[in-house]
Amino acid sequence: MLVPISLQTMGQMFLNVKATLEVSEKVVLANRMDEQIITPENINMVLKAVQGKGL
Fold first, then answer.
1. CA distance linking residue 5 with residue 17, whole number of Å
2. CB–CB of 38/30 below 8 Å?
3. Which of 18, 33, 51, 54 could covalently link to 24 via disulfide, CB atoms 3.0 to 4.6 Å apart?
């Protein structure tokens, strides 16, 4: 589940999403630290890494 971030910090939103879902261990934080907008390609890279398929 990907959730857009607006006024909350990434950590706050991450914890809120995990607390809301029944299967919270499948929630993964996917963000960038360089103030650029995360792209679909970035998200795909994170999903591959989480699934153990490498970058």
1. 11
2. yes
3. 18
Q: Tokens for 23?
A: 């299967």
State the pTM of this model. 0.53
Contact indicator for 48, 55 with CB cutoff of 8 Å:
yes
Map out the domains of the chain as residue ranges: 10-50
pLDDT at 41: 92
Cβ-contact 8, 16 below 8 angstroms: yes
CA dihedral sign, ordered 10, 6, 38, 22: positive
